[in-house]
């Protein structure tokens, strides 16, 4: 087995408007989670996946994935937790078999290209202990004071040099023992991504190019982008079939 991927999919999607858990929101004809797993399992390096599903929907998610991916799909479903970090830890605890490379990928990033998945695994196999896909920052970034959720009354403190900044995506890749040690050592809610926990241990995290198509569906506008990308891919498949 080359690599396994843990897929946190238990979030409520509050910034998307709540209601159905975000990973179960339909994009086109299937839920976001199905798109994400199809994208991940299309990579030859991925041998298994463990999904952290909404705790009250584990059986429903198992049935959904069996229907959409096939009963023999190498996918295990467990109950996620109250935070992304806990969901990842539960998925990691459920990972069986001798798999030295473990990826963590948000179900909310349904369209990650195979090339990014392969690059992450190859970087770990080449000796890195941890790796993240990332994109350069295209907006000017400023630090503000009086941070308010709606941005009201904030003031700029300084402009941050964006040349040394990267917008980090998933799948993030790790040596399995490194990821396990990071989760063991990190307080709950300590960081917003798994690489952050590894950094806190002093482990070097490598960077590989990400992809605009690996964007995270977070706010309502992202759903429009996701549908547009789906339509473009359908048209490309139709063109190839002609
Ligand atoms: N308790 C949680 C929270 C998040 N996630 C997952 O972590 C990924 C990234 O989290 P995010 O985009 O923040 O999803 P939500 O937490 O659902 O979004 P929001 O913060 O808007 O509620 C998502 O695939 C989400 O399903 C999870 O498995 N368990
Ligand atoms: C893990 C992540 O997708 C990397 O950019 C991001 O940190 C998740 O943040 P969220 O607020 O949990 O969506």
Automatic annotation (TrEMBL):
<protein>
    <recommendedName>
        <fullName>2-C-methyl-D-erythritol 4-phosphate cytidylyltransferase</fullName>
        <ecNumber>2.7.7.60</ecNumber>
    </recommendedName>
</protein>
<feature type="site" description="Transition state stabilizer">
    <location>
        <position position="22"/>
    </location>
</feature>
<dbReference type="GO" id="GO:0050518">
    <property type="term" value="F:2-C-methyl-D-erythritol 4-phosphate cytidylyltransferase activity"/>
</dbReference>
<dbReference type="Pfam" id="PF01128">
    <property type="entry name" value="IspD"/>
</dbReference>
<dbReference type="InterPro" id="IPR034683">
    <property type="entry name" value="IspD/TarI"/>
</dbReference>
<dbReference type="InterPro" id="IPR018294">
    <property type="entry name" value="ISPD_synthase_CS"/>
</dbReference>
<dbReference type="InterPro" id="IPR001228">
    <property type="entry name" value="IspD"/>
</dbReference>
<comment type="pathway">
    <text>Isoprenoid biosynthesis; isopentenyl diphosphate biosynthesis via DXP pathway; isopentenyl diphosphate from 1-deoxy-D-xylulose 5-phosphate: step 2/6.</text>
</comment>
<comment type="similarity">
    <text>Belongs to the IspD/TarI cytidylyltransferase family. IspD subfamily.</text>
</comment>
<keyword id="KW-0548">Nucleotidyltransferase</keyword>
<comment type="function">
    <text>Catalyzes the formation of 4-diphosphocytidyl-2-C-methyl-D-erythritol from CTP and 2-C-methyl-D-erythritol 4-phosphate (MEP).</text>
</comment>
<feature type="site" description="Positions MEP for the nucleophilic attack">
    <location>
        <position position="216"/>
    </location>
</feature>
<dbReference type="InterPro" id="IPR029044">
    <property type="entry name" value="Nucleotide-diphossugar_trans"/>
</dbReference>
<feature type="site" description="Transition state stabilizer">
    <location>
        <position position="15"/>
    </location>
</feature>
<keyword id="KW-0414">Isoprene biosynthesis</keyword>
<feature type="site" description="Positions MEP for the nucleophilic attack">
    <location>
        <position position="162"/>
    </location>
</feature>
<dbReference type="InterPro" id="IPR050088">
    <property type="entry name" value="IspD/TarI_cytidylyltransf_bact"/>
</dbReference>
<keyword id="KW-0808">Transferase</keyword>
